[in-house]
Automatic annotation (TrEMBL):
It comes from the Bacteria. InterPro entries: DNA-bd_dom_put_sf, HTH_17. It holds the Pfam family HTH_17. This is Helix-turn-helix protein. Residues 12-63 form the Helix-turn-helix domain.
Amino acid sequence: MNLPPLPDPQTMLTVAEFCAMLRISKDTFYKWRQIPGAAPVAHKLPNGSLRISGADYNAWLQTLRSEAA
């Protein structure tokens, strides 16, 4: 699967942007959030919406790396 380039660490992604980058549904994102470590850290804004920083996204993605067996 070809993923888009990594976001700028200063960027704040919406849930929709994050899901589009990984080609997953919002339901999948919210299910991942229920499992510790399965989703990147999200910042809750005063209006209740969530944002994922580019730095948190990049760090989370690195935790998913797997060496070939």
